[in-house]
Specification:
By secondary structure, this protein is an alpha/beta fold. Helices cover 43% and strands 18% of the residues. The strands form 3 sheets. It has a 5-stranded mixed beta sheet with strand order 7-6-8-5-9, with helices on both faces. Strands 3-10-4-11 form a 4-stranded antiparallel beta sheet, sandwiched between helices. β1 (39-45), α3 and β2 (65-71) form a beta-alpha-beta unit. α7 packs parallel to α8. InterPro entries: Solute-binding_3/MltF_N, SsuA/THI5.
Length: 334
């Protein structure tokens, strides 16, 4: 069984807080020495696939420094941004909503990365009598709180005629949820990415999918100090654009070779890793775009759903924490 030691929320912040000084204070002036003096502390979820993609495409030799840190979810990345320990976070639409819910976020959503919504599923263990979402009524269901899993589980329950209160919902981190599913502590688990892949390797069965529930918009959130420096803005835009170019490089006939990298990291057979990658890119090629009214409206719809669920105390105006400050640099970099 694939296991990787990931930073939990508390441990992540404890380890990353010393980096806050290296990330630069809010009053940091733009350096006259150019990008070589810039260091970006950047979050990653899963197995640092963004870093691996850049390295595979020979685009990791940036003119600025990048310090990658690994988290189990985008929610933890946003917590690190709020703590001043990350400059740039990648997540689904959900984590910035909760990170901004207190009304005083220290970040802005500055770009959107279109991506696959595959491997976002509600799964049950092998031999379970539950065959669909309706069968979850009265069951213990794990989910990754304040993430895509939280949202698509809620939406799937509604579509099946169930309320959130109809299940015994248990917030769990991906690794903990997988262990609970295998150990009989929960009857089903709503999760994403590597945890879903690993669960299927262990015989888990899909009873619901977020594929057609989620928008495919994954957000880049930058700490406010990044936007105050022309050098940091240029570095952030360049990094985001490089990831887009790296995926295009892989799609240009290099899927099999990259699948070997993925398989080594996730302990999948190479053939399965290649199929998953091809399926993901066929559904929605990974590529960045600038902020648009449609992307803001998409997140507003999600925020309103969490208000209805009672996870947010009141209506949240999401456009208050979006910014087009990176648009010009990103358009040039792309």
């Amino acid at each position: 069984m694939f296991r990787r030691t990931l930073l939990t929320s508390t441990a992540a912040l404890a380890l990353l807080l010393p980096l806050a000084t290296a990330c630069g204070g809010d009053a940091e002036a733009e350096s006259s020495s150019g990008l070589s003096s810039v260091t970006l502390a950047v979050g990653a979820t899963g197995w640092k696939n963004e870093e691996a993609v850049l390295k595979f495409a020979h685009l990791d030799d940036t003119p600025y420094k990048v310090k990658w840190s690994l988290f189990q979810g985008g929610d933890q990345q946003l917590q690190a941004v709020r703590a001043g320990a990350l400059d740039l976070a990648s997540s689904s639409e959900i984590p910035p909503i909760f990170a901004a819910a207190d009304g005083s976020p220290n970040f802005k959503v500055v770009a959107v990365q279109r991506g696959t919504t595959l491997n976002q599923e509600v799964i049950v263990p092998k031999g379970s009598k539950v065959t669909d979402i309706a069968g979850l009524k009265g069951k213990k269901v794990g989910y990754v709180q304040n993430t895509t899993a939280h949202y698509f589980l809620y939406e799937l329950l509604q579509r099946a005629g169930l309320k959130w209160s109809d299940i015994d919902a248990k917030p769990l981190l991906p690794n903990d949820g997988l262990a609970a599913l295998n150990g009989g502590g929960i009857d089903a688990f709503a999760s994403y990415g590597t945890s879903v892949i690993t669960a299927h390797q262990q015989g888990a069965v899909t009873v619901g999918s977020g594929k057609d529930v989620l928008s495919g918009n994954f957000l880049w959130s930058a700490r406010d100090n990044v936007l105050k420096s022309a050098g940091r803005r240029a570095a952030a835009a360049d990094l985001i654009a490089r990831i887009t170019k790296a995926y295009a490089y892989i799609r240009d006939g290099r899927e099999h070779e990259f699948a070997k990298v993925v398989a080594k990291a996730t302990h999948q057979p190479v053939a399965q890793a290649e199929k998953d990658f091809r399926d993901a890119q066929a559904q929605r090629p990974t590529q960045a775009r600038t902020v648009g009214d449609d992307t803001i409206a998409s997140q507003q719809k999600v925020a309103d759903a969490f208000t209805e669920l009672g996870a947010l105390k009141g209506k949240l105006d999401v456009k208050s924490f979006w910014s087009r400050a990176l648009d010009t640099d990103l358009e040039k970099a792309l």
